[in-house]
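Structure first, sequence second, as always.
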């Protein structure tokens, strides 16, 4: 009959007596150290949830969020929105002829006038958006079809764009700037807003093209290639996207702070939408509008360039 005794050191891989000398090597134990952290003996507090503690906390949190919700609801209701569809699908639409007969690569402009009436006053700031329906910017290959290094002004990426831009990486043997499918499909319809006074005279409304993009996009993610203040020289050796009429350095030649890669219309377009309905900021009217309680007549002139089948303002 044999008897054995338990030895903690033996469990840790340390054998007592002569057995430790006879073994080929000590077996290292995987037992955790006898500490409060590794043995899960740290002091802890576990609340006991009862109706007397849960219900008061629930009502207090609810009372805190009620005024927040009311403020958000009132703020949302104060936002005024007016939509104009200039798709031109209906034969009675003023843009019907442009929608049916216009070709995206045509050099002859196709302009249509869309009159509308505002029954309530729109005070500043008034933002103008354009919208596209059933345009899936969230497609995986479309989202990846860009070169962020090139858009950040990197000279090497300017002349050697990423392969993710294929098939819009090169054109006529020259690198495309900006490359990729997102930039190639840039929304480029031109919209002009006019106010029709009581005499029937059309008065143009100035629309600011700046202040519509995210600050981080404008000042961090998008930069023009350095080395030359003349953008035509800075972009020398590159070609415009296939579907563009003008090169990137002619997006807004009248304003150097809104031209090239830092053009805010271009920056807004490059921030792809998550859903099939695509609303994007186009411009805004920063001046204080005069309050007029009577219906006012307005007009939008649309210069069609976009080859997409469905465009909605």
């Amino acid at each position: 009959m044999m008897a054995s005794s338990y030895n903690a050191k033996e469990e840790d891989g340390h054998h007592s007596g002569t057995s430790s000398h006879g073994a080929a090597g000590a077996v290292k134990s995987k037992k955790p150290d006898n500490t409060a952290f590794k043995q899960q003996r740290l002091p802890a507090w576990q609340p006991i949830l009862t109706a007397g503690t849960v219900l008061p906390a629930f009502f207090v949190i609810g009372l805190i969020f009620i005024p927040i919700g009311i403020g958000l609801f009132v703020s949302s209701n104060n936002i005024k929105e007016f939509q104009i569809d200039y798709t031109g699908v209906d034969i009675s639409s003023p843009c019907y002829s442009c929608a049916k007969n216009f070709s995206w690569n045509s050099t002859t402009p196709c302009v249509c006038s869309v009159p509308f009436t505002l029954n309530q006053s729109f005070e500043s700031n008034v933002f103008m958006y354009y919208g596209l329906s059933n345009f899936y910017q969230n497609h995986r290959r479309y989202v990846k079809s860009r070169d962020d290094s090139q858009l950040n002004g990197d000279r090497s990426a300017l002349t050697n764009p990423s392969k993710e831009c294929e098939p819009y990486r090169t054109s006529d043997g020259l690198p495309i700037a900006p490359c990729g499918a997102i930039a190639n499909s840039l929304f480029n319809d031109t919209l002009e807003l006019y106010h029709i006074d009581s005499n029937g005279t059309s008065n143009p409304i100035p629309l600011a093209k700046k202040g519509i993009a995210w600050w981080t996009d404008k000042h961090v993610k998008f930069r023009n290639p350095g080395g030359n203040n003349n953008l035509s020289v800075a972009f020398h050796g590159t070609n415009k996207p296939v579907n563009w009429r003008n090169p990137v350095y002619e997006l807004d030649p009248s304003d150097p702070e809104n031209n090239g890669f830092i053009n805010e219309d271009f920056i807004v377009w490059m921030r792809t939408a998550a859903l099939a309905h695509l609303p994007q900021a186009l411009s805004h009217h920063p001046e204080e509008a005069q309050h007029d309680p009577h219906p006012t007549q307005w007009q939008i002139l649309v210069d069609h360039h976009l080859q997409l089948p469905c465009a909605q303002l």
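Margin note: The first strand starts at residue 110 and ends at 118.
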